[in-house]
Design a protein that fits this description.
417 residues; Molybdopterin biosynthesis moeA protein, domain 3; alpha/beta; Molybdenum Cofactor Biosythetic Enzyme, Chain A; disordered N terminus
Length: 417
């Protein structure tokens, strides 16, 4: 068995900036291959091929209203009395035509009969059965949906790379696609490290804490549209971590929390260096400075691994800033950045001068103001649950005063399509 070198856990020579770290992460994660899924399972996934209309939609000219199919010249003025020569239900096809002075009762979605070019809605008539009185003049062509007005045969109706929302699922359904090719969603192994971490239902002894990180991170994986494979708690030994990472490496990506600092029991960096490569492990950020990124070897596969800090705020915040964009990129998303805004700060915020600081904030879009959620300690997970944004404060200053305009990351809003 390989031994862990004490020097492999040394402090990084230089902390990367946030932008440098994100660029290296996005450049280091693989794109996943496409696969075919049932149409409803494609919601939120990225379309892997152009969707082309195989027929016109609608496939025939039809009525947009319940009413009467008529000739436009017969209803240009009102009142007008027309002889009713039949009726057409949705799903039926008319066998007769509408001549001068005639009308045909028609339901929404039913095919327009020959000779008719206008539909008078039933509310504008006396609803007559044999003879109908048109009470309001109706413009020619009103309430008629033309063949192909939505989709034309051969037209690319949804281009590849589109994130599929409910509307796109509906469009694909109209093209007769029960299955669709999409980029595969990443399957992400999530595990916690540390002898102090216990299961949710376990009694807590002195020095122990419940494992919130595994749950918040698994939920964050799911919220990003990926599949969380929630593993267990790994004890503070290199042997236990090796075994856990061997299992986890069958996933598309691995997310750990804890064990990424430089203490005697922080084994993530040296063990990952044994089992693959470690790219970097320090970022000039608060909270979340000790974040490790590398890859595990699983035969010919290279599996990205994110070693997040153990403090719950640091863990979830660095997932938001670095892991979520990486998973979206793996899943085929072109845009992986949350929307941003600027707002007026309502209170003083102190920060380390040399670090980029992400305060948890509450943004009021009605007056473009922002305030913090309160105490900003890296162990105060409630600061994340109260927040709808991150206040992005650059390095170079120790204090930001009320009234300043600051940059925000809108964490409650999805990435632009």
């Amino acid at each position: 068995m390989a031994t862990v070198s004490a020097t492999s856990a040394k402090t990084a020579d230089r902390s990367l900036t946030v932008d440098e770290a994100l660029e290296r992460i996005l450049g280091g994660v693989p794109s996943l291959p496409p696969h075919e899924v049932a149409l409803l399972d494609a919601l939120g996934a990225v379309l892997a091929e152009d969707a082309v209309a195989v027929h016109d939609v609608p496939p025939f000219t039809n009525s947009a209203m319940d009413g009467y199919a008529v000739r436009g010249e017969d209803v240009a003025t009102a009142p007008a009395r027309l002889r009713v020569v039949g009726d057409i239900a949705a799903g039926a096809y008319p066998s007769e035509l509408v001549g001068p002075g005639e009308a045909m009762r028609i339901m929404t979605g039913a095919p327009m009969p020959d000779g008719a070019d206008t539909v008078v809605r039933v509310e504008d008539t006396d609803n007559g059965m044999d003879v109908v009185t048109i009470k309001r003049a109706t413009e020619r062509g009103l309430s008629v949906r033309g063949r192909g007005e939505d989709l034309r045969v051969g037209e690319v109706v949804i281009p590849r790379g589109t994130v599929l929302r409910p509307a796109e699922i509906g469009v694909l359904a109209t093209t007769g696609r029960p299955r669709v090719r999409v980029v595969r969603r990443p399957r992400v192994a999530v595990l916690s490290t540390g002898d102090e971490v216990v299961e949710l239902d376990a009694p807590i002894h002195p020095g122990q804490i419940r494992d919130a990180n595994r749950y918040s991170l698994s939920a964050a994986v799911g919220a990003a549209g990926c599949v969380a494979w929630t593993l267990g708690i790994v004890g503070d030994t290199p042997e236990a971590l090796r075994a856990a990472l061997r299992d986890a490496s069958s996933a598309d990506a691995v997310v750990t929390s804890g064990g990424v600092s430089v203490g005697d029991h922080d084994h993530v960096k040296p063990v990952v260096s044994e089992m693959g490569t470690m790219d970097f492990w320090s970022i000039a950020i608060r909270p979340g400075r000790p974040l490790a990124f590398g890859e595990l070897r699983d035969g010919p596969r290279r599996v990205p691994i994110f070693g997040l800090p153990g403090n719950p705020v640091s863990s979830l915040l660095t997932f938001e800033l670095f892991v979520r964009p990486a998973l979206l990129r793996m899943a085929g998303h072109a845009n992986v950045a949350r929307p941003r805004a600027r707002a007026r700060l309502l209170e003083r915020v102190d920060k380390p001068a040399q670090l980029r600081f992400f305060a948890r904030g509450i943004h009021d879009a009605s007056d473009d103001t922002v305030r913090t959620t309160g105490p900003q300690g890296s162990g105060i997970l409630r600061s994340m649950s109260l927040a709808n944004c991150l206040i992005d404060l650059p390095p170079g200053r120790e204090r930001h005063e009320p009234g300043e305009t600051v940059d925000l990351i809108l964490t409650d809003q999805p990435e632009a399509r």
